[in-house]
Amino acid sequence: MASNKKSANIGARLDRLPNSGWHIKMWLITAFALLVCWSNAIGGSVQNVLLNELHWLEPGTTLLAMWGTTYTAGQLFGALVGGPIGDKIGRKKSIMLYEIIHIIAMIGGAISPNVYVLYVFRLVQGFGLGALLVVLFAGFTEYVPGRNRGTWSSRNSFIGNWSHPVSNGIAFLIGLTGVGLNANWRIQYMIPSILSIIAVALIAKKFPESPRWLESQGRVDEADAILTKIEKEIEASTGKPLPPVTEEPKPVKQLPYSALFRGKLLRRTIVGSLVLIGMNTIQYTLMTWMPSLLVSLGYDTSQSQFMTMFGLFGAPFGIFIASLYMDKIPRRVTGVILLILMAVLGVITSQQTAMTPLIVSTFLLNTVIYMYVCYASAVYVPEMWPTSAKLSGSGFCNAIGRVSNIFFPFLVTYVAASSMGSAGVFVLISIVAVVIAVSVAVFGVETRGESVEDIGNVD
Q: Where does this chain mainly localize (predicted)?
């Protein structure tokens, strides 16, 4: 219910809060939810079993190309629809809704009797995760202060992106147990389903609604009550009074969805979409195709899973590095540097065939890719929107970023099957990185260190 009170100065009160146990709690709950929703992270290992062992999928076929496309299509619509719904019903309710959809789809995938039923659940998995990631990453920026928002969001991404090496490590260990291959990939779906149920319970009990979102909806009394409780919790944990609020209340506006396509927000919509096109085409191509590409170089399934798992440890390492500098370097400069590094390492990786140099180059490439993933998906794009349009803006950019992945797997399939083989796929990654780097250099906007309310000033 809307309040007659116009403002409770929510933004200034949140931004002046010292780092505390409450911030750590919010970070850990969000990060755990991100860590265990890994239906995307197991895409490569499940595809590897279905393609090279069970032959539910066959090389060079449209059905194989649709493995990535189906999931991406679900993510596209999840981001596109999930963002506006999240701006309408709130952060907490939308997180729980999308978690439940994703859990049901993972369990359905685990019990699928054939590849066609699996594809249906894979589409729904993509929808649930696409919406969930928008709310978790963008919504989280409303709970932390602008002065170190990039660091907190990077830490969030650091924990969440352990899902790739952890899930591939679990797939490797499942293979060592001698369990049948038909059960192998099903178990890979059941484990994150169970862990995600735990995440839902934590969110229901410990995760408050965003005071910033409540204020943007005119529900100022509710926002004030929640923030007052948070302030008392922080004072009790630190044993010190909170610093005074020195800033005057700033206007919080209700913006329609159409605002994303005009004025200052249009530039942010363009930049955010380009940044995520680069992230998705590079990251998901590598994650989905790496095991199969290694098999094409002569490594067996067990070796390819081991090499993929080792290379993927570059993901948390890269995000850890990103968390150390994220609030120290301008956002646009960061994006351009990382994209250029990806382009160079992609070419280097394409020239490797022996196991050791291939593992090393893949590790380095993954390190830089995940520095960019942290920058793009956890920090830059989620933070560039006003509160009332935060999930809509982030969701739209995520959706556009995934459009390329609907068509890109067909190009990757063609290149991998051509005379260029697996080396051509890495060159393709490099070309994409260069194109996006030029775009960010030209159109990039700066958000580092600004408050959510200042970012929301689009007059």
A: membrane
